[in-house]
Amino acid sequence: MKRLVAIAAAAVVLLSGCGTRASDAEIQAGAGGGPVPLPESVIAELQGALPAAQPGAPVVGLPSGVVPPSALPGGAVPETAPGTSGATGTTDTPAAGAPAAGREPASSAVAPAATCTTKGAPVTIGQVGTYSGVTGAISAPGRTALAVWGQDVNARGGLACHPVTILNRDDGGDPSRSAALVKELVAQHRILALVGSTVAFSAAGFRSAVEAEKIPAIGGELIAPEWHESPWMFPQGASIGDQIIGIIKQGVEAGKKKLAYLYCVEVGACTYADKILKGGGAKRAGAEIVYSSAISITQTDFTAQCQNAKNAGAEQIALGMDGSAMIRLARSCASLGYKPLFSGVGGTISPGQATDTLLRSFNLATATSVAPWLLDDTPGLKKYQAAMKRYAPSLDPDGASISVWTSAALLERAVELGGNGALTTELIVTGLGKLKNETLGGLTGPLTYKPGQAKAPSSGCLFYELLTPQGWTAPRGSKLQCI
Region Disordered: start and end of each range (predicted)? Predict the structure, then answer.
């Protein structure tokens, strides 16, 4: 769950008792969680305007992920499918692919393709996110996933028979820069929409720009509350508030009802979690709050928080922090002989950090707004897995990549529903307004948007994952958990 992006440009507020500030290098290096460079030549080949993709060609050599066990510890529900983990970084390279015959509906991974008899003019899609800094390893796979989708959709004939070019931009976690980049993509490159943006730290600036430019932002990391507060932001899954309740509910269902929670001061979603839980969210999940504390994700030590949670009898600690901080928390709690269940939002830990042996020993319960990347048992998941295997076979699927892939599938579905007119931003917005109980082939909970809506509603439906000593598992498979 570390799609919590690079530390915001605003000064970090350190509360009393938070400890000293860790260096960026220390945070980035935690459990091998720093960005893994993806060479420009490789991403250019993946994204470039090639005559055709090269199926099976290696994209970048990364160690393969850990295969989850067939059953979970402690009598949990057996997992239904194996999974993997991986991490990459990307470069800021335009993406374009060569069109081929056939376009497949986004809501079905295996439906017959309709042949494009006439190729349309190229269209451009934008993507803005925080891909650098200490959290780059978390969000970078989503950048690659949109490039994979670009190749895949163009191999199927393009978006409504229009070849797609993708332009992505790194905002460095700065709200002002995020706003400027959105305006640049609209003014200079005439993008039709923004897709799969990762803006947890920069959401305020991002939101202000998409509303000013009247450009739809389709899907993102869904950690920032803004995704469900704007008429121009169209989330591909449940809200951060529902995710927070969902992660705690999974722990409660495992018998861990006494709750402590720690929330960071660097990102709005963390303090929003405090508001949600104290405002009745913990009770909705079936938990009793016994301790809470503000922290900083840059802390080097969490012994005081671990001791307080232990003294309060907490059986579960909900974590409003990134994966590197989770690892340091695990070390602090283990030093006291204290091992509660950890729980956290599904987008704040990198695949590299998920290999940390000590963190795994605590078990980490997560809830995500899109289907587990481990599985391939629905039409939407089959299509995702097939595209990743074909165009990026050495990159293991992960939470960031499936989140962005689902965002792109939402764009495709909106285009299908928009009608037969010219492919424009207006057509996409029209199509979004026609969505009703759309799951995108099992990739997400039921999405419904209405024309002219003031904000997007949350489906309230999630998927569970659990990190165990053996690796990531999906304790409820691809079954939706609606709170």
Answer: 71-106
